[in-house]
Amino acid sequence: MRKGNPATLDQVPPIIEELISVQGYRWMAGVDEAGRGPLAGPVVAGAVIIRPGDVIPGVRDSKLLTPGQREKLYHIITSRALSWGVGIMGPREIEKHNILQATLKAMKAAVLNLDPSPDFLLIDGINPIPIDLPQQAVKRGDACCPCIAAASIVAKVTRDRLMMEYHRVYPLYNFARHKGYPTRAHREAIRTYGCCEIHRRTFKGVKEHLEAGNGGHQEGPGG
Q1: If exposure means fewest CB atoms within 10 Å of the residue's CB, which of 2, 39, 100, 108 is most exposed?
Q2: Helix axes 146-169, 67-80, angle to 10 degrees
Q3: Residues 155 and 180 in one domain
């Protein structure tokens, strides 16, 4: 493979998943999130149980895929997976619990939506989920575990779709383009129009405008 063209996970052996499966676990779920860094919108977690022996070509870290590739793979994953689920924590939950705890709550919710229930979890990152299941956190797991990469795609596509819906409610912020991330255009929109209902009021880039008294408040249709 040419330098600079990252391998998809169907082209490398899923070593971690194989090591777990030989211990006798049957339903292994990958868990990942999308949306920890934005200034607006929810954090969304995905959980996916891939059928043993099933290899889905093209699956890799969602950040390395184009929107079109993600959408295509989302449909393949959700149609072929043994089970998949999502968990969503909105801006008020993020403000209440902080982004890390809200992320872990979203991951737990995604796992609880799986049927059948998994007997082992592989989680992207370094933090375990507060749930009574055997689990292992894997740093950069979306780059080495197919089931985590699949979960990252489910989470990212779900969140992007939500942000497209929010764009229709709050068109001044152009959420359809940046999905709530702190781009220059998004920051300028906050300075110009203030914040809206889905902005994270405890995040740098939002809170200073509220503290300065120029934060405004944009409501959706119907107030």
Answers
A1: 2
A2: 120
A3: no
pLDDT per residue as tens digits for the range 52-91? 889 999 999 999 999 999 999 999 999 999 999 999 999 9
Q: β-strand 135-138 against 120-124: which pairing, if any?
A: parallel
d(CA 164, CA 221): 16
Structure tokens at 6: 């990252």
Residues 91, 114 share a domain: yes
Q: Are residues 31 and 112 in the same domain?
A: yes
Question: Which H/E stretch holds residue 191?
Answer: helix 184-193
Number of domains, the chain: 2
Cα separation of 62 and 151, whole Å? 9
List, for residues 109-145, the tens digit of each pLDDT value.
999 999 999 999 999 999 999 999 999 999 999 998 9
Same domain, 57 and 152: yes
Exposure string for 151-185, b = 16+ CB within 10 A, e = fewer? bbbbbbbbbbebbeebbebbeebebeebbbebeee
> In terms of C-beta distances under 8 Å and separation of at least 24 residues, what long-range contacts does 191-196 make, across chains too?
193/218, 194/218, 196/40, 196/170, 196/172, 196/220
Which of 152, 163, 144, 165 shows the shortest CA–CA distance to 45?
152
Please indicate, yes or no, if residue 192 is contained in any of the structural domains. yes
